[in-house]
Amino acid sequence: MTIHIFNPEHDISLANGMKRVTPPHAARQLRHDLGFIPALWAHDGDMVLVEDKAHAERAYDRVRQAASRITGMKSGDVSFIENADLRGITADSVSPWGWDYSVRASLATSIVNPEVLPSDESLADISRLSHRRTAATLLPLLQFPGTIGSAVCCTSRDKVIEALWNAGGDAVFKAPWSSSGRGVRFVTRSIDDHTMRWVINILKKQHAIMVEPRYRRVIDFGMEFESHGDGTAAYSGLSLFTTANGAYTGNVLATESRKSEKLSRYVSADLLANIRSVVCSRAFSALTSSYRGPFGIDMMVVASPDRDGFLVHPCVEINLRRTMGHLALSLSPSDDDIEGVMQVVYEDKFKLRVSRQALS
Question: Between 20 and 30 A from 192 (CA), which of 218, 237, 322, 326?
């Protein structure tokens, strides 16, 4: 039996680096309102740790019924528990949205068999590999004809200014650890005072800033994987998603063939297959031999600099955790003629909305 946990404050915890972290209100509310979502991928007999069992049961039932009508998803035999219930439970494993010091510390004093929790060394590896320089380091392995992308890890204000100049004055600044677009700034021509204060603050707290050229994005997508921890990974599926101001807003729910068809308007199937193959091979062992569990790679189709066609940025971000793309895969239909959309909306509280959508 596995205990599942939705801890969306994971990236904030990594950025904080402390064993205990108090997330901002929005992250706390997201965890409360959507704490039920691991039930959508959990196996029979598993448990989901939530803050409010009654709310989780109602929200899960609503989403399960909507998904059943649209995609034919069948519900499993999953139980919801609260912190007070942990003391009498012995779990075979614990599976949070993402592992960090904060979530482990919250479980260490309550769970009956703490040996199922990761070691300090494992958490240090996850934190190290979650730094955005990992994506920059592995990006060259995925660069085939038809791809684009570069990133520079800057450790001083002068290096940041130099990298902006080298990017032609149009760049994206990224904090090494951040979530939902909060640690991202778009800069054109020069760095204004407000952005420079942000740069100095991030350098002080996280000791680096990633600087990347800004591309003309056409479509966001990603690939989801499961790392075996032995230098190899298994491919889980494509994720077609949307964002607003850098924050996730929704996913297409469709079969792998339909999603591939949508992307084929911009990129060849062979190129996607090559990218997928490298990630699953031992070429990615710097990542997949140090980490075991789900991960996702965010990518994007961009307009080519000469405005003649499209290119793929094959490694915008690497998320060493479960992603909304993984959730979308668990809700996706098996019928090519069915397509839906999964969205996270805010209406006094966060809601996961699953609805039917016409194929386009």
Answer: 218
- Summarize pLDDT for 212-251 with one digit per residue, the tens: 999 999 999 999 999 999 999 999 999 999 887 667 889 9
DSSP 36-64: TGGGGTPPTT-EEE-S-HHHHHHHHHHHH
DSSP, res 231:
S
The SS3 call for residue 322 is coil
Contact 208, 154 (CB under 8 A): yes
Contact indicator for 359, 333 with CB cutoff of 8 Å: no
Residue 18 is predicted with a pLDDT of 63
Rounded CA separation 248/203 (Å): 26
Q: Is the pLDDT of residue 204 over 80?
A: yes
Tell me phi and psi for residue 154, to 5 degrees: -105, 135
Q: Is 180 left (phi over 0), alpha (psi -120 to 50) or beta?
A: left
Query: What's the pLDDT band for 360 if we cut at 50, 70, 90?
Result: very low
Please name every residue paired with 81 in a beta bridge, in sequence order, or none if there are none.
Answer: 49
Condensed to tens digits (0 to 9), the pLDDT of residues 68-100 reads 888 777 777 899 999 999 888 888 999 999 999
Residue 253 in contact with residue 71, Cβ under 8 Å?
yes
| Total residue length of the chain | 360
- CA separation (Å) from 109 to 19, 47, 86, 106? 13, 18, 10, 7
Q: How does DSSP assign 138-200, residue by residue? A: HGGGG--TTB----EEE-SHHHHHHHHHHTTTEEEEE-SS--TTTTEEEEESS--HHHHHHHH
From CA 296, how far away is CA 317, in angstroms rounded?
8
pLDDT of residue 23: 82
One-letter identity of residue 157: R
